[in-house]
UniProtKB/TrEMBL annotation:
Full protein name: Uncharacterized protein
Keyword Transmembrane in record: yes
Transmembrane segments: 43-61, 67-85
Keyword Membrane: yes
Keywords: Membrane, Transmembrane, Transmembrane helix
């Protein structure tokens, strides 16, 4: 139920109500286009939590091992700086693993090999061999 004053007001003429409806549709379209992008996985939080744990253990047992607190504090500082200076939106490196156990039809396709169709046009290059399929990068091969 829309209870905005623009919808309820009878003084609005048809042009103004059409403009309001268009504005609402544009707002909905921009909301639908927005997506959540999560940062890449990182080991810095794990290192930082282990360093904090070591520093706290060092504080609890300070008469026995005072050096443990100092080592933990240094790693806490390194963990904070590493996590803060990491680029969370950097593109992840794609890795493809080739399996030497593949045989049969797919054995004739090597990674990096250019692929052409039966008309002689280039389809791209082989990026990976997966089960009964190959992953080809579309584009012009060198």
């Amino acid at each position: 139920m829309d209870s905005s004053l623009q919808r309820v007001n009878p003084a609005l003429d048809e042009k103004e109500s059409a403009l309001v409806a268009d504005h609402e549709e544009e707002a909905l379209a921009t909301e639908e286009e927005h997506h959540v992008h999560l940062p890449n996985p990182s080991l810095w939080p794990v290192l930082l939590s282990v360093a904090i744990l070591v520093a706290i253990i060092g504080l609890l047992f300070i008469p026995d091992a005072p050096w443990l607190t100092l080592v933990g504090a240094v790693f806490v500082l390194i963990g904070i700086l590493g996590w803060a200076l990491e680029d969370p939106m950097a593109a992840m490196k794609e890795t493809y693993i080739s399996s030497p156990q593949l045989a049969g039809e797919l054995a004739k396709f090597q990674i990096g090999q250019s692929i052409i169709d039966r008309d002689g046009e280039s389809l791209g290059t082989v990026q990976a061999r997966l089960g009964n399929y190959i992953l080809a990068d579309r584009g012009v091969s060198p």
